[in-house]
Give the backbone structure.
Amino acid sequence: MRIWCPWPLDDSALWYGYYTPFRLETSNVARHDNIRKMKTIRLNQEAQIPVLGFGTWQMRGDECVRAVSTALEVGYRHIDTADVYDNHKDVAKAIKESGLAREELFITTKIPRDLLCAPDVLENFNRYLNELDMPYIDLFLVHWPNKQIPILDTLGAMNQLKQEGKVKAVGVSNFTEHHLEDALSTGCEVTLNQVELHPTFNQLELQEFCRSKNIAMTAYSPLGRGEDLSHPTILELAKKYGVSPAQVVLNWITSRGIVAIPKSSNPGRIEDNFKSVSWTMGNGDIEKIDSIPQEPRILDHPGSEFDY
Ligand code: A2P
């Protein structure tokens, strides 16, 4: 694989590499050299996830095609989508138009909580490959847990897809510690948990738990849907480093070794967010953001199992 890892591989911790685009000389359309500086987190022997990805929630049709095209042009190589976002075909269109090779990209998608029985997983996954017009998915996630369906059934099917070479890494989303313990007790691969995480909902306990189990994390709604950008601590640090508040928040997340997938349909903001990986935040400032008072999560709904 073209991505290299400067550290000896070590089972006791997540380890990092740098993203090295495969055909940089011939097909790189990136506007920013940051693509070379993009850190990755190793998920397993076959997959390393770039720490900054492009979130596509609530984007469909031309808006989604335009936004993903801009993101690819700027230099993002990691795109996050899901069945319920109903935009697989739009993502595929933007990728096709970019001319980038499949192996230059890292694609995550997710299966909804009502399709977690093994036959549903296998059947719908084939639909995802058709919609996304690609032979494999880099990271395949359970979108929301569902205690009505044995997790072994779901993860067994997802890991079967991995053995068939159609998935590089398997993970979950919106899982609590208890869900993760259930999942790990199956012995199946669970490489990553994607959850809401931003300065006013920092999930420090879940971060600690995931670290102890060698499970990587992705932060969705990393900007707190834009709400965290006006927090006084974030504004103060933006001034100190001479960057935007969004860059401060994203840099804080990726500096902690967590993947961030900011969403934006605005070209200037898509580019601004990408620049967040090009500078380094001091440890004291990371801790300063860690100590911001916490607020309730933004995203909850009756079907969630956050109380488990
Ligand atoms: P827009 O799409 O108009 O840029 P999150 O990723 O936490 O869900 O946040 C997404 C929200 O934050 C969207 O409303 C998006 O609006 C806004 N946003 C994304 N990037 C930036 C940025 N760099 N500065 C300000 N707002 C941003």
